[in-house]
Amino acid sequence: MHARWRVFGDGTPVTLVVHGLGATEGEARIPASGLRGTRVVVTLPGHGAAQDAPAGYWNYGSVASDVLAVADEVGATQAVGVSLGAGALTRIAAERPDRFQRLALLLPAALDHPREPAAAWAYERLAAAVAADDGGASLHDVLAAEIPPGIEVGDHLDQRARALSRLSEALRALPEQVPVTDAGALSDAIAEVLVIGATGDPVHPASAAKATAAAFRSARLELLESRAPMLTHRRQLRDLLTNFLR
């Protein structure tokens, strides 16, 4: 296992929280805020204090295997995943349909079809910016363009740039992949599912959220009008998650 994790709180339920690609440590903890019981926040390789991922690690199978190992170690009965984390949990639901009782899938980027051109291009821009030999100026500019006007983010851009600078292989590999090859397998999952998508985020298109919700037999879909809901709709996200997972 290459992932690390931290435990917050105690008691039941035990909720696993899996971040997205390039998430800062602060971002990774956002979905855990306000949840009762035990919150287990996973840190994937190449993030935070975790070691860099070994060569060839960045595929949904490897990430899902690490996430499942942590879930089994801590006895998680429910889970929250953001972007890549949502994809990993979707993969687990397809392969182990009885593993979780509740799943909250935030900003899924894909399901079983290749990414839309706008999403693929967004990943290409990030990968090129990480590879640019300009002291991080290109990456900072790309990330700044993602922030909605009027949102104060402090040192978030610098932290996220540092996080993504370790993930060039992931930025190249993951856009070519999908979490599941057969979405029909998700109809066997026993979990109640909440899917939260966004209407203006090119990396996480609303179509992916809609397809993910439709694939489960018991899923609720919420679409937020934002291109960066983790920044603009943090309170609403917290309310949705705490009400669903309480």
Automatic annotation (TrEMBL):
The keyword Cell membrane does not apply. One of its GO terms (molecular function) is hydrolase activity. Keywords: Hydrolase. SUPFAM superfamilies: alpha/beta-Hydrolases. Pfam families: Abhydrolase_6. Residues 16-224 form the AB hydrolase-1 domain. This is Alpha/beta hydrolase. It comes from Saccharopolyspora aridisoli.
